[in-house]
Amino acid sequence: MLEMRDLHLSFGPRTVLDGIHLDVRPGERIGVIGPSGAGKSTLLRLAAGLLRPDSGTCRNSFLRTRLVFQDPRLLPWRSVAANLDIALRAGGVPAGEIAARRDRWLARVGLSDAAHAWPGELSGGMAQRAALARALALEPDLLLLDEPFSALDPAMRADLGKLCADQARATGAALVCISHQPWELAGLVDRILHVAGGQVRVQAAAHA
Ligand SMILES: Nc1ncnc2c1ncn2[C@@H]1O[C@H](COP(=O)(O)OP(=O)(O)OP(=O)(O)O)[C@@H](O)[C@H]1O
């Protein structure tokens, strides 16, 4: 469970979040929309524990939270496969399971043939798929997606969105996805939050 209560955060004189209340329960899939600069990424960083609020509380009792950023953030001096292996080792996956899990996830994002490539040799979309595989291979119980599909073509966006939703359904994980394309959230999430003016303005049910 993720609980945000009356959460405030400013960067210098700029108030970005101004009294956020939000609950994310296991199995919930939530979309986040709102104007540029509204604080959507900041909200996810708080949820992931990368930022602390100035006041209010942010409690995250999920055990494995993974955040996928807009840019892939792969280690450039390691192969694609090694990028996954390092994350899996750091995530406590037993050594004997790492290769099989990495190969399964690279296959699921269509990157089996790129396992031994360097990140610099990948297209933007391939690198983003590798970053998504790295996150999903950890079997997170809270998956935070910060516009991870923006570098992908529409067909690939739909495929990977479905992959995330299917994985969340299969494992009971919660998912929070920021998007500038509300249509991209259809079928992926159950409800959509509109963040504006530092607050969660609207909570609407999503339509498939
Ligand atoms: N580390 C930081 N230091 C100072 N200001 C920051 C920092 N991170 C974010 N901001 C500012 O906080 C505001 C909200 O940023 P945030 O990235 O959360 O918005 P967003 O809604 O995700 O925007 P976008 O849709 O453009 O990605 C912006 O004005 C941004 O410049």
Automatic annotation (TrEMBL):
UniProt keyword list? ATP-binding, Cell membrane, Membrane, Nucleotide-binding, Transport
Source organism's superkingdom?
Answer: Bacteria
- Give the matching Gene3D superfamilies: P-loop containing nucleotide triphosphate hydrolases (3.40.50.300)
Q: Which Pfam families match?
A: ABC_tran
- Signal peptide start-end: none
Q: Which GO MF terms are attached to this record?
A: ATP binding
**Every ABC transporter domain range:** 2-208
Question: Where does the sequence pass through the membrane?
Answer: none
| Matches recorded under InterPro entries | AAA+_ATPase, ABC_transporter-like_ATP-bd, ABC_transporter-like_CS, ABC_transporter_ATP-bind, P-loop_NTPase
Q: Which family does it belong to?
A: Belongs to the ABC transporter superfamily.
Question: This chain belongs to which protein, by name?
Answer: ABC transporter ATP-binding protein
Q: What is the lineage of its organism?
A: Bacteria, Pseudomonadati, Pseudomonadota, Betaproteobacteria, Burkholderiales
